[in-house]
Amino acid sequence: MNGLLKKRNGFAVAAFTASLLSMFHGSAYADECPSEDFSQFLPAFSANAEIQQRLTAMTVKSLVLKPAGESGNFEPQTTGVKSSTLAFPLMAPVATGKTEGVEAEAVDDSHFNVVDKRAGNSNIKIFNFSRQACWVLEGVEDWSISEKNLVVASTPTMNTSENFCYQRAQAFAGLGGLEQYRLTGELFVAALENYVCAAASGDPQASLSAAGLSLSGMAPQLETEKVEALFKAAATTLADGAASLSTFYCYGNNPVPEGPCRHPEQAEKELIRAASMGSADAMNYLGYSFEEGRLVTKDMSRALACYRLAADKGNDTAAGNLKRLNAQDAAASTKTSYCY
């Protein structure tokens, strides 16, 4: 009986030992750990493919961005991937001390995340480490968008590369707009970079999106000359582009409009263009401008005409303005004039 118990205990010890070792490729005893100090461990781990393979969990949590639902939307999806299927090295060498583009973030005493931005904001990877017998790579987050998940030539005005940029920009902006990921700021930066790439084609919508995001406060501001060029490209065919260019002529590259309009003649011209393109909002604001003399022209009859046009297109604010002016001057409603 004692012999049988010893034999069973031996199997139990062997099984327990095997379960510990199964977390790594090969042996991973503490004396084979490059360092218990993560700041020293990371350079050694990243510099050696064999160490990476040995100190990577058997099953790695792999996060990738995949298309989801409505066309153009992406979401992160996490699955378990056997490390034997991965191509090592997974991480490029990280120097001791500070490496530009690499940030090591301590989650707690037993977990570190390494954010690698060296390939640019559109290709960020995050490596998740946990401390066991040694530090172990247990997860890899890939926040890039693969070309295989994009649609070729979805926008005729762009070449393939610009098309891919535009689709990536929309996807990154959508993810950033959710404000639920640690990379929210970087996602908006990636969106802006890709919108600018797509706008190189002269595409009005890509240009408007790039300029608008630059002024949103969610991404770095582009240079004033660049923003003006983008709005001008957008204004060629888009009412919102012309309206935005009008605002730009008033307040420049300032996210918060304040003070008097700097270039009222140009601003009024673009606002008229936006209204003539069918924008009810532009018609309403043009009416307000004519009513108050905010730009160049002050003309109550034209203000009424603009409010009337916008109200006919379903703009509730314009309808309220029209009602207000008619109440102030009943005869005004019978006056004939033009908006633009």
Describe the fold and architecture:
- It comes from Pseudomonas jessenii.
- Keywords: Signal.
- With 340 residues, the chain is an alpha+beta fold.
- It folds into 2 domains: 23-142, no CATH class; 147-334, Serine Threonine Protein Phosphatase 5, Tetratricopeptide repeat, CATH 1.25.40.10.
- It has 12 helices and 6 strands.
- The protein has helices spanning 2-21, 38-47, 49-54, 160-178, 184-199, 204-214, 224-235, 239-251, 264-276, 280-292, 300-312, 316-328; strands at residues 56-67, 74-82, 102-108, 111-116, 125-131, 135-142.
- It has a 6-stranded mixed beta sheet with strand order 2-1-6-5-4-3.
- It is elongated and about 90 Å long.
- 36% of the residues are buried.
Report the average pLDDT across residues: 90
CATH topology of the largest domain: Serine Threonine Protein Phosphatase 5, Tetratricopeptide repeat
Shape: elongated
CATH superfamily of the largest domain: Tetratricopeptide repeat domain
Number of helices: 12
- Which oligomerization state do the chains in this entry correspond to? single chain
Strand order of the largest sheet: 2-1-6-5-4-3
- What is the CATH architecture annotation of the largest domain? Alpha Horseshoe
Q: Gap between N and C termini, in Å?
A: 103 Å
Organism: Pseudomonas jessenii
Protein name: Sel1 repeat family protein
Keywords: Signal
Signal peptide: 1-30
